[in-house]
Each structure stands twice: as C-alpha cells, then as structure tokens.
Design a protein that fits this description.
globular, 5-stranded antiparallel sheet, mainly beta, 12% helix, 6-stranded antiparallel sheet, Jelly Rolls
Length: 147
C-alpha cells in the first residue's frame, strides 16, 4: 500500500470509509505501510479499555473535548490542542468523562494490521469478539482488574 497524492476532504474518509467501533466513529484519512491516521469521534462516556500495541507507536491530537489517558496507575487529561504520546509496548486506556463529544486525530506508525482490524470490527457489538480479533491484529487488551 503506497500513499498516493491527493486530499481526503473534511468529513470524509478514504474510499468513503467510516467505521463504527463500539459506538465510536473512526474515519480513515491516510494509510500507507508507514503510517495510518484517522479522525475519531468519541462520544461522552465512551472509552477504550487498557491495551498494548506491541509493534506500533500511537498518538492522539485532540481537536476539541477532553480525554483521560491511563498509563498504568498514572491518569493524565488531554485537552484541545494537546498531543498524547503512546509508545509501543506501553499499556494505555482512553476515557471520555467530559460530558461532551471529543474530536481528535489518532495515528500509528508503522500501520501494521490496524486498518484491517478496523474493517473487521466495524459494527461488531460483541466485546469478547473485539478482544479476540484485536489480538490477531497486534492489539492486546489487558484483562479487567480483579474484584
């Protein structure tokens, strides 16, 4: 997959793609072997459980709203204009407790299998199947805390 020159218009995804992943909307903007970038709408009270990308660095640039990021016991708050760095191999979870939607751009490098994972997860409502498929695509969700 080689990146081609051009523009992915505001509000549109590459090849008109838009994914619903457990109530969050992901719109792919750029995809190559080296990088994958997507716009995300994370509704109020939505979250991504703690997980690890063993083969990718990930980042979020927040356009508006607010997100809480958990790195183990450390919880940080990102606000509009902030960029969150999530190095490969480091567990992280994302929660929107702000009471309003959060708009942001996510990116990973290298792209690896994440684009294919999002295709597989689109409109899938079974969290156990999300965890299973994610592991097959190099995203490992952590087990829930005991108790």
């Amino acid at each position: 997959m080689t990146m081609t020159p051009g523009i992915t218009a505001h509000g549109e995804g590459m090849s008109d793609l838009k994914w619903n992943i457990l109530g969050q909307t992901y719109t792919p903007k750029l995809h190559s072997e080296n990088t994958f970038i997507w716009h995300a709408l994370l509704p109020a009270d939505s979250f991504v459980p703690p997980h690890i990308h063993p083969t990718q660095d990930e980042w979020i640039t927040l356009l508006d709203g607010e997100l809480e990021l958990a790195f183990g016991d450390q919880v940080l708050t990102a606000r509009a204009g902030d960029t969150v760095r999530m190095p490969m191999g480091i567990a992280h979870g994302i929660t929107n407790k702000s009471g309003k939607d959060a708009n942001c751009f996510f990116g990973v490098a290298p792209s690896r299998k994440l684009f294919d994972l999002f295709n597989a997860l689109h409109d899938l409502g079974d969290p156990d199947e999300v965890v299973r498929l994610s592991a097959l695509h190099e995203v490992n969700f952590l087990p829930p805390p005991a108790g």
